[in-house]
Amino acid sequence: MTTITSDNDLFTLINVFYVDPENQQELIDLLIDATEETMKNLPGFKSANIHGSFDGKRVINYAQWESKEHFEKMLSNSEAIPHMKQAEALVNDFEPIQTTVKDSIAI
């Protein structure tokens, strides 16, 4: 489950993928499959939240890992690499933003 709080040290990746609108749903489906088949079974994985922009031009993956080190190990995982290559083939560009939560305000 996603935890958005400054009370922990989770590593958060906000990955913005830029796609042609006709590729948006295919990328969303691919990211869901990759998460279900591989990512959620890797050490340190906490959550993934996949968003599609209303204009169809972006897909955003808000993913949390126990640490940056766990995330970096995933990047070289032999089961994760094929999923990343498939995603790369569908996107025009992407912007991985590595963050940590500084505050969360809700009502």
Question: In angstroms, what separates the terminal alpha carbons?
Answer: 19 Å
Instruction: List the strand order in the largest sheet.
Output: 2-3-1-4
The global form is globular
**Largest sheet composition:** 4 strands, antiparallel
Q: How many strands appear in the DSSP assignment?
A: 4
The CATH topology turns out to be Alpha-Beta Plaits
Order of helices and strands: EHEEHHE
In terms of DSSP E residues, the strand content is 25-35%
Number of domains: 1
Which CATH class? Alpha Beta
Task: Give unreliable regions as ranges.
Answer: none
The CATH architecture can be given as 2-Layer Sandwich
Instruction: Give the radius of gyration.
Output: 14 Å
How much is the average pLDDT?
96
Helix content: 25-40%
DSSP helical segment count: 3
Structural class: alpha+beta
3D architecture notes:
The chain has 107 residues and is an alpha+beta fold. It has a single domain (11-99), classed as Alpha-Beta Plaits. The chain has helices at 24-37, 68-75, 80-90, and strands at residues 11-18, 45-52, 58-65, 93-99. The radius of gyration is 14 Å and the shape is globular. This is Antibiotic biosynthesis monooxygenase. Residues 11-103 form the ABM domain. GO terms for molecular function: monooxygenase activity.
Give the topology.
Blueprint: E1 11-18, H1 24-37, E2 45-52, E3 58-65, H2 68-75, H3 80-90, E4 93-99
Antiparallel strand pairs: 1-3, 1-4, 2-3
Please name the defining characteristics of this protein.
single chain; 107 residues; alpha+beta; Alpha-Beta Plaits; 4-stranded antiparallel beta sheet; 4 strands
